[in-house]
Amino acid sequence: MRAVLIALCIFASTLAASEALKLTLGGFPARLNPILATDSVSSELSSWLFDALLKYDKNGEIAPQIASSWQFEDDRTIVFNLRRDYRWHDGEPVTAHDVLFTYQIAIGDRVFTPYASNFRMVESVETVGDYAVRVRYKTPYFKALETWLMPLIPKHILENDDDLMTSSFNTAPVGSSFYTLERLELSRNVELNAFALYKPQPPHIDRVTLEYVQDPSVEFLKLGARQIHIGSLDAMQVSRQIDERFREDYRIVETSSFGYTYLGFNLTNPKFANPKVREALSYAIDRDELVAILFFGHARVCDGPILPGALGYNNAVKSPKQDTARARALLAEAGYDENNPLEFELTTNSGNPIRAYAAEIILHQLAKSGVRVKLRVMEWQAFLSRIVHGRNYETLLMGWSVPLTPDLFTIWHSSSDKRGGFNFVGYKNERVDRLIEQAEKTSDRSLVAKHYEEISAQIASDNPYLFLYVPNAISAISRKLEPIEPTITGWGHNRESWRLVP
Prior knowledge:
By secondary structure, this protein is of the alpha+beta class. Helix content is about 30%, strand content about 25%. The strands form 5 sheets. Strands 11, 12, 13, 14, 15, 16, 17 and 18 form an 8-stranded mixed sheet that branches. Strands 1-10-9-8 form a 4-stranded mixed sheet, with no helix packed on it. It is globular, with a radius of gyration of 24 Å.
């Protein structure tokens, strides 16, 4: 251990001489423990700090990370062999006992986490010595490998922690990935240092600084001043506001994102328990206008919970075109008219101007069908705690990022309507539950795709969400940063290989 600490000190002493990779954070992370990192900012930052048994490679295929290999003993049992050179940031080895501990914490009662559902098909996990784990599933399961994309947490640090929900580990974590957390300043900056013991080799860039920038317009100004190496661009900026000099300094990388924005209903509210009301509001919204005004063609209309390119996408499911006459007729059937208009509050979070603009446009569109809406914009953490987790809202304007192999259980199964669960609109449909359960209990991906297509059609018909749009992901990446390789999984898959060149 003394040799490890000496190596870390020597490595750290060289950091000041090299240029840092400069990024921004659009919000402040709530918890960096990956089991508790449920918001996008926390999840993104924790991905720099924690590794998993497996990962997606640049082609979207499952690849080893902490695991060196795996084999199926039968159609329900996998044995994972762990690398023996992986270390936690304090120098301790990553072992099979950490895998078992992570699983036990995720499914136990010491934390409230939606990620517990990732392990719902696991029957048992057992260590086989210090560097192998045997996992047995209740039935054959099409996402048996994807289960272990969940980052690991260190047993030797957390096993005696009395309260993991409020643990100091959540803001001062000890991870296993290629960067360590050097500094976390509330609502200010985050600094990461390269982990000297990372295998197969430490990252080439010694330091990463992430500046807290709540307003994306400030991020754009920082890009213009060449103060950051990577930043997001919106459609207006890339279409109207950047010049040739900007393009000389930054490469513009645009891909179709695996994420969508939606208007969600609190289905426990009597107003929205009526399916005619939800259908009416779907007809009242002009999604094409949202895409045109907000994105100048750098987006597409969203038609359902599974996006093109993902397993189970249903090309036959289409969001309706705006039809205000149909909307008014459906509202009248539900008991609403000019003398008794439908009124409700639409809540969204601050720090996302595109979403705020979308909300304003939606209010205007709904007014054409006689619907009166009040907009409420909240700071992100207050939004999470009071609105999403507390279920104290009428309607929400939010977004989801979705994986290449979707797991519909966490958002759409009725059992996920619970504290810490992602089904916070309270959607319940017995047919959808049954199809999700049938899809899970097979390793036949073609059968899974068939079930998922049926689920997409049913959810689109029920309108628990109004699916709105899928924005393109547009990034400005400094030409000093190499190698950047955009693929189906994005351009961040090879961060440990990045270099800053003169």
